[in-house]
Every structure is written in C-alpha cells, then in structure tokens.
Specification:
Order of helices and strands: EHHHEEEHEHEE
Strand content: 25-35%
Structural class: alpha+beta
Distance between the termini: 28 Å
Number of strands: 7
Radius of gyration: 15 Å
Shape: globular
Length: 163
C-alpha cells in the first residue's frame, strides 16, 4: 500500500470502504439500520467530494494499485497549529497491517506547522481507542463536540507534535 492524495475518481471506493468499515464496527452497537442511515448522510459522494477542495485540509487514501484499503481526512485550525483528524478508516480485512499508521504519519507530515493533533472517537470503539493510544494519543478531560452516533459525547484524544 502507498498513501496518496484522494481524487474524484476515488470517491466511490472511499464511500464503499466507509460503509463496510462502519457496518463492521458499529452494527453491534447501533444496529444495521442506524449505521446505514449514518453512512448515507455522512459518507455520501457529495459530502466526500466537498472535502477534496476544502482549504487547510488533507484527504488521503491508502492504495495498492487495485483497491483503496484506507482513508484519512484532517483539517488544520488555529493558524495551522492544531490538526483535527476527522476520519481515519481501514478496511476490516486489512486492519492490523500498518495501513492506519501510514495514513496517520502522512496526515501529520502534511501539516508541518502543527504542534498537536486532536480527534474524537466513539467511547465504545475500543479498537480505535487502542490504535490511537498506541500511536501516542492521550485522552483529554473534555468531552467531544461532535456527539457520537448514539447522541452521547465522544471522547477527545490529543497528541503533541515536535515543532
């Protein structure tokens, strides 16, 4: 797998990846119908397309030349000092192979002025929490602003970066 910037031609594969990953992760928590509803709204081609040209943002895919195996999207705020990781997903069949780490590293490298990376994660997503903690993220005392799919606040994690 190699990491590159996402393009228009990738949107269908990215949407399919998000739908598959969300069902694998959240069906047992929220039910298949709710996950289908969420992915229909949050991961539509239109929503994904709008991120391609978003200023102060990076939209990446992990690609092996045959398929998109992972994706990440992040935005910078605070004059470029803070990066907010909005999405990082890897196909369930490819998880545990270093793809998430490659995407995370490339996101961080894409924002050289940043002094920290922040993200929100569903409290019940133990696998994602373990991944972020293994990659140097520490839980913040604050609750997330996004609110989880359940309507409950999400957990906020932060990682300081060397400047």
């Amino acid at each position: 797998m190699f990491v590159r910037t996402a393009g228009e031609r990738d949107l269908g594969a990215i949407r399919a990846l998000l739908v598959e990953t969300w069902h694998a992760t959240y069906d047992a928590i929220y039910g298949s119908e709710r996950v289908t509803e969420i992915t229909g709204k949050w991961h539509s081609i239109e929503v994904l397309r709008s991120r391609l040209a978003k200023p102060n943002a990076e939209f990446l895919v992990a690609d092996d030349g045959k398929r998109i195996g992972g994706m990440a999207f992040a935005e910078s705020t605070d004059g470029g000092k803070l990066v907010t990781l909005k999405q990082l997903y890897v196909l369930p069949s490819l998880q545990g192979r270093g793809i998430g780490g490659m995407l995370l590293d490339e996101i961080i490298e894409s924002f050289p002025e940043a002094s920290a990376v922040s993200l929100e994660v569903e409290e019940q997503n133990a696998r994602a929490i373990a991944f972020y903690e293994a990659n140097g993220f520490v839980r913040s005392a604050q609750a997330g602003e996004q609110g989880g799919s359940s309507g409950k606040p999400t957990l906020v994690y932060r990682r300081a970066l060397a400047v």
